[in-house]
Specification:
Layout: E1 31-33, E2 44-46, E3 50-56, H1 61-68, H2 70-73, E4 75-82, H3 90-97, E5 101-103, H4 109-122, E6 127-131, H5 138-143, E7 148-152, H6 164-170, E8 175-182, E9 192-199, H7 206-229, E10 233-235, E11 241-243, E12 253-254
Parallel strand pairs: 3-4, 3-6, 4-5, 6-7
Antiparallel strand pairs: 1-2, 7-8, 8-9, 9-12, 10-11
Length: 266
């Protein structure tokens, strides 16, 4: 599981991109607005499958889970962007499931920024999902404003940064967990979409804690993708994410899962 650390911790680095324009307008005729609820912006609904770009640096466990349940999620994996250090079998996995893949070589920063901007924006996706260990350039962040999500291994706003899970244990917090949130300019400060909570055990290793946390993260991640595909993700007047029709106020995952359950073991 520790080899999947890039899928947890390092994706937060994406937020260090420089300032971007105001939120981009979604276009292309793929969405139609729902009637807004009280104090909420209009939610956007899909008549087609949600096109998702996945950016992966580790084993891609969440990406693989999403591809395996693509029909249930009503998503179309539009592209996998893989770092040089990502799992070596991702090409074979993508070929077997009909997913285009772009694996980066080790190239200078300028060339990386130019190329990832071209491939991500050129994919014409509805959503970008980051479990990535490289800063995403401002052009991509701006293009997918409010349509780019990140996984962080702590209960934000506590323990932001690249060592969220380790800092949770180091500081003796009684609960840790994972947060899925939107990407904004400030590191780990984007609106929270969903969180899962896991009680810590004194003396437990980071690897053991990570395995217990991933058991909840995986179904939470799939549920978030499904909410986006259903057009249920919106924002209140304060800019906080609100899932229309979701059930709040329950543990260990909030909003509560609707279509997925944690596996017995991972």
């Amino acid at each position: 599981f520790l080899r999947e650390a890039a899928d947890y911790k390092s994706a937060v680095q994406v937020h260090r991109a420089t300032a971007r324009p105001e939120h981009a307008t979604q276009s292309g005729g793929r969405r139609t607005p729902h009637k807004p609820g009280p104090h909420l912006e209009p939610f956007m609904a899909h008549s087609l499958r949600l096109r998702v770009v996945f950016c992966v640096s580790g084993n891609g466990l969440l990406f693989r889970a999403a591809v395996a349940r693509r029909a249930e999620l009503a998503i179309e994996p539009a592209l996998l962007v893989a770092r040089p250090n990502a799992a070596a079998d991702l090409e074979d996995f993508c070929a077997a499931h009909g997913v285009p893949i772009h694996r980066f070589a080790r190239i200078p920063r300028e060339a990386f920024d130019r190329t990832i901007s071209e491939v991500c924006i050129g994919a014409n996706a509805d959503l970008v999902s980051l479990t990535f260990d490289r800063i995403i350039p401002p052009a991509v962040v701006a293009h997918y404003a409010r349509r780019i999500i990140n996984v962080h291994p702590s209960l934000l706003p506590s323990f932001a940064g690249t060592n969220g899970a380790a800092d949770t244990l180091k500081n003796g917090a009684r609960f840790g967990g994972a947060t899925i949130h939107e990407v904004v300019d400030e590191v780990d400060a984007g609106p929270i979409i969903a969180q899962c909570a896991v009680a810590t055990i004194p003396g437990e290793s980071a690897e053991a804690f990570g395995k217990r946390m991933f058991r909840l993260l995986e179904p939470m991640y799939l549920q978030v993708l499904k909410w986006y595909a259903e057009g249920r993700v919106g924002h209140d007047d304060a800019g906080r994410v609100v899932i229309r029709g979701a059930r709040y106020g329950e543990l260990p995952i909030a909003p509560s899962l609707e279509a997925f359950t944690p596996r017995e073991s991972v």
